[in-house]
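Quick start: what a row looks like.
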Amino acid sequence: MQADEIRSLFEYHMALNRRLWDECIVPLTDEQFLQPLDYSVGSIRNQMVHMPNVDSNWFELFAGDFDSKPNFLNPVYFSTREKVR
């Protein structure tokens, strides 16, 4: 994969991430954001914390760091949308 392709994918990813936040996450109530769900990693909050965890791991792989262990953020430390974002 060429550097321009990686940049293009990154820009696309970030644009969709902003759109997801602006159109889907921001309009939620605090209760909806924290509500436990029986899907994936749990609440929408947990999913939104999970996303940058995965991004960080991908960036480490792009940088050639194949030996590092994932360092995941814990959603319990992000009680509001502002803290997650």
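That is the whole record. The two ends are 29 Å apart (CA to CA). Residues 52 and 58 are 10 Å apart (CA to CA).
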